[in-house]
Amino acid sequence: MSELRELSERVRRLEDEREIARLIASYGPAVDAADADAAAGLWTTDGSYDVEGWSMSGRAAIHDMVNSSSHRGLVDAGCCHFLGPAVVTVDGDTAVAVCESLVLVRTGTDSDTDSGYRVWRAAANHFELVRTPEGWRISRRTTRLLDGNETAHRLLRRGVAGEPL
Q1: The CATH number of the domain covering residues in 3-160
Q2: What is the pLDDT of residue 113?
Q3: What is the pTM of this model?
Q4: Where in the chain are the domains?
Q5: Which CDD domains match (predicted)?
Q6: At residue 65, what are phi and psi to the nearest 5 degrees?
């Protein structure tokens, strides 16, 4: 392989990894701003999101989740969905990524001296992604609580190894 071709492939892989990391990092700001269009747009049209047995299929279902009364209650009270740095493995036009996430919820009010945030959830997130004409999109996301269960541990191991579920 020529040095130029090798360099070109390395640059493309780095650009892909950066785009995927940005896509994953965009989830928190989108859902915390209750921007259902932006959040749903991170997925392929037929993409899925399985979080603790709540399975959503397609952008419309993810859009509905962001607009749901339970999610709007979190946003209106003050919350932060933080997805940590992702480990990304690109294989041509598909990729696997894994990260951990925290959801922080606001406690108290501005007048409370104990006002602040507490960790409401800590979870493992496994992503399968595909390159589309729109750029990289999530085709499958699986999220499980980090509560000692083996399922969450398996998500982490497989993601770090770059393996789909």
Answers
A1: 3.10.450.50
A2: 65
A3: 0.94
A4: 3-160
A5: NTF2_like (cd00531)
A6: -60, -45
